[in-house]
Amino acid sequence: MLRKNPLLAAAIALMMVFGAGSAFAENIVIKGSTTVLPIAQEVAEAYMKAYPDVKITISGGGSGNGIKAIIDGTTDIADSSRFIKDKEVKLALEKGAYPVPFAVAYDSIVPVVHPTNPIEDISLEDLKKIYMGKVTNWKELGGPDMKIVVISRDTSSGTYEVWEEKVMEKERVYPGALLQASNGAIATSVAKNKNAVGYVGIGYLNDEIKALTVGGIEGNKDTTLSGKFPISRALFMFTSGWPTGETMNFINFTMHPDKGQKYVEKVGFVPLW
């Protein structure tokens, strides 16, 4: 049949050639934390330049959603700004998944206000009172007579869960808080509202918002690495089981001091080394 139809034979040959090429291409899917998102994006861009046959797709949605995706088998890597919970481990094991954590950077969650706000420092106790709705006006903290607009992350966020643990001490943020889905959204909201207070990862600090010290301690590279800043944490990438192949290569690339770690610092977070 192919001898009688040379055009069909040529078409099949082309399909075999292109099919063989695509068979060697690798895809990596990354989902999860919006805090880790800029790290993943920068590292992935560098990785795809180094390995042009690899395609990496990245999406945010929060740490909880990333870990859920690892458990459900819909992602190769889950970005998370918190460690996995016991109940998530239990669910993973029930589904035959074995999440493996890799710390890829360090971070501090820094309270931020509008640049015109004269407040410079705040205590953990006062932060907790603000987010519980017990302190409602900046004048109660020595600031101007303005009602405090409280901005927080949604409950699927790893940043929120670290804030809940280290600031709220397991108390819930009061219902009047405005919830945002990402660090970037909080930074934008605070920049546009003179009465607002929010919190962001150290990589999201910019000139349009003012970082507050906490108990006199600035959130920076040194205080994050030492753990002196009271709201510091590690940032993770999780895989389902010990990674192999291209996923393992990408994790190694991310953690390498002369490769992925330089992009951690480029986007404003604190590298491992």
Write a structural description.
The chain is an alpha/beta fold. It folds into 2 domains: 6-106 and 235-266, D-Maltodextrin-Binding Protein, domain 2, CATH 3.40.190.10; 107-226, Periplasmic binding protein-like II (D-Maltodextrin-Binding Protein, domain 2). Helix content is 38%, strand content 23%. The strands form 2 sheets. Strands 1, 2, 3, 4, 6, 7, 8, 9 and 11 form a 9-stranded mixed sheet that branches. Strands 5-10 form a two-stranded parallel ribbon. Strand 1 (26-32), helix 2 and strand 2 form a beta-alpha-beta unit. The longest helix has 19 residues, at 6-24.
Task: Report a brief summary of the structure.
This protein has helices at residues 6-24, 37-50, 63-72, 86-94, 124-132, 158-166, 183-191, 221-226, 245-255, 260-266, and strands at residues 26-32, 54-61, 77-80, 99-113, 121-122, 149-153, 178-180, 196-201, 210-211, 213-214, 232-240. The chain has 273 residues and is α/β, with parallel strands linked by helices. The longest helix is centred in the N-terminal third of the chain and has 19 residues, at 6-24.
Secondary-structure topology with pairs:
Layout: H1 6-24, E1 26-32, H2 37-50, E2 54-61, H3 63-72, E3 77-80, H4 86-94, E4 99-113, E5 121-122, H5 124-132, E6 149-153, H6 158-166, E7 178-180, H7 183-191, E8 196-201, E9 210-211, E10 213-214, H8 221-226, E11 232-240, H9 245-255, H10 260-266
Parallel strand pairs: 1-2, 1-3, 5-10, 6-7, 6-8
Antiparallel strand pairs: 3-11, 4-8, 4-9, 4-11
Helix pairs in contact: 2-10, 3-4
